[in-house]
Amino acid sequence: PTHTAPAPRPSTTSHRRPARANAHGTIARRALGPLGAFIHRGVKFALGLPPPHASHVGGGGASVHHRVRHIASALVTDARALMTLTPNEKTLDPPEGFTVLQEGKARILQRENDVFYNKAQVVNRDLSLSVMRQFQKVRAKEHAETKRAPKNRRLKGDMCVTPRDSKILPHLMTPQEIEDMFRTKHDEPETGDDDKKEPRDKKDDEPEAGDDETPREKPPLKPVRILEGMAASGLRAIRYARELDDVGCVVANDLDPTAIASIARNVEFNAAHSAEAADRVRKVVPSAGDVRMLMMQHEKMFDVVDLDPYGTPSTLLDGAVQTVADGGLLLVTATDMAVLCGNNGEVCWTKYGAYPHRAKYCHEQAVRILLGSIDAAAGKYKRHIVPVMSVSVDFYIRCFVRVYTSAQQAKLAPTKVSYVYQCVGCDTFECQPVGKAVTKGNSTKFQAGSGPVVPRECPNCGWHYNMGGPFWTEPIHDMEWVDAIKKQVEENKAMYPGYDKIHALLTTVSEELVDVPLHYDIHSMSHCLRVTPPPMALFRSAVINAGYRVSPAHCNPLAVKTDAPAKVLWDILRCWVKEHPVKPIPEKTPGVVILSKEPELVANWTRVHGAFTKAQREGVTRFPSNPEENWGPKMRAGRPVPGGGLEKQGMTKKQRTEASK
After folding, report:
1. What φ, ψ does residue 324 adopt, rounded to 5°?
2. Cα separation of the two ends of the chain
């Protein structure tokens, strides 16, 4: 191919932006957060203004940047309206002692730390909204194309566990459905002897009465019924009600009476802003009680169940898989990352039924442990899960799964999880499925998995293995969902206050290898050999040239997710060491043993297009910086904040101690 020499670059001085314009850009970004960064980048082009170099070359730079500064100042002044997506609604003055916090279209009243609120969870809430919008589209399409009714059989009559006086039941079911659910045999009309039919012999292939496979009339598609199990201030529930279309109700539940009062207060405050807001927030139904009891008493009645606890969700999963309707969406957050990442392996075993490794893939491991635990809970009730997207973000993990009823699919649960053998000397790991399905003709038998898949000692370094798991080793993303969600987010940037972060996350997720569990860390492998790591694009090129697939991972900027065996990766690094020699190490280490073997594969360092990520090609920052300091977990609700004021939330223990002096 013919290469054209690049044009000479103009003088740096002629392209330098005025300092004041850059300062205004910084102000806009800080004032508006992620949305401000987007506005600052695109405001000139959105208004048809020339790019910076064109304006300066033409001599009109001062005029252009004066206009940009004017626009940026106006945006900062009107930041509250932009962030809430309600420019026609003027925020009302809060009651004395309260502060108004705004996110999307929702406004909440906050008084110090009486009810839990974490600004950093804006990414969690934005991501949930984007996934739920896609769920509504898929749900409507499936309803139009499917002829059979969903498998939402519940216990009825005398066996019904739903309280007759349930306050949320009228919001979930029609009066006729409620009457049918509580009807007992004594309520059935008596029939004469002439109406009784003689019993007949049932054929072997005939389904039982009331069996799941019995064709039933398909009911009309209802508006989405949402449960937020731990609502706290109700911010998430109000955003769901105000920003999602076709919502039947949003049950905002919490055990804390202070939180229930806060939800009611915030619903009333939002309703006072406009008639449209009042019409939407009336769908928020406050509920006081233990969410575990609520879920078990309302079997298969919610289309969406959102659980975002402070800590572990392990005690909630059993009820969650029962209350979500067939094909419904279950959203689960876990923040006990120290447990899931291997710092307290015995605690992880008691909570999630899996033993974690302390490895570089610990955050992806955490996602897979939670998915395996959810599927294990669902299997008890002849149900199974299908993950649509599961991610590790900041200080927590978030799983989005659909729950289906199928005894046949539930039997496949052991084939979807694996034990993981991790070498203690190097980064080598291998997965061994817990079970397998053997099909012969029309018959499928389920057997224990074959193993072990590794020898007693690691063939690469000679050290022994530790065994952990079982972890979920099936795909954790549905790429059709991810691509559709990413497209929808890009087309509606202003709807997501945390756009920069969720867009970067979705971009990275969209190029992951979904059929490859866990990943390697290029710096960790290089550290084992005491060598400077090769450039990521170069290493990926070598893997691709060796005939294997490779991709990044959303939870680690140094991750190498590939279907290449560990032996191939070590061979590539051996070739790298030959070209970049390391100092000899006197003692025997895993790296010394690995380098003592000659590589069987000769690395081809020719750069290829696939070695560069989609984010690099599209100019997207894969891991954007946090918008402000102390962007992380906050104190539990009710704990006194030293000195008072919301600004003290999120401080470290040392900072709070100094502030209280």
Report:
1. -80, 140
2. 70
pLDDT digits (tens, 9 = 90+) for 523-557: 999 999 999 999 999 999 999 999 999 999 999 99
Which residue stretches of 559-607 are H helix? 566-579, 590-595
List C-alpha distances in Å: 604 to 140, 547, 552, 601.
49, 11, 20, 9
CA distances to 166, 288, 289, 391 from 293, in Å: 12, 11, 8, 28
Distance of CA 115 to the CA centre of its chain: 24
Read off φ and ψ for residue 169, nearest 5 degrees: -60, -45
Q: What are phi and psi of 573, to 5 degrees?
A: -70, -30
CA 169 distance to own-chain centroid:
29
Whether residue 223 has a cis bond before it, omega within 30° of 0: no
Measured CA to CA in angstroms, residue 178 lies from 116, 156, 284 at distances of 35, 10, 21
Among 145-159, 540-554, 592-606, name the one with the lowest average pLDDT. Answer: 145-159
- Residue 227, helix vs strand vs coil: strand
* DSSP codes joined into one string, 298-348: STT-EEEEEE--SS--GGGHHHHHHHEEEEEEEEEEE--HHHHTTTTHHHH
Q: By the 8 A CB rule, do 471 and 517 touch?
A: yes
Q: Of 242, 313, 312, which is closest to residue 271 (Cα–Cα)?
A: 242
d(CA 456, CA 339): 28
> What phi and psi values does residue 313 have, to the nearest 5 degrees?
-95, 10
> At residue 249, what is the residue type?
C
Q: Give percent of the chain above pLDDT 70.
A: 78
Q: What is the spatial distance between Cα 35 and Cα 29, in angstroms, rounded to a whole number?
A: 8
Q: Is the four-CA dihedral 526, 532, 534, 535 of positive or negative sign? A: positive
* Spatial separation of the C-alpha atoms in residues 284 and 228, rounded to whole Å: 10
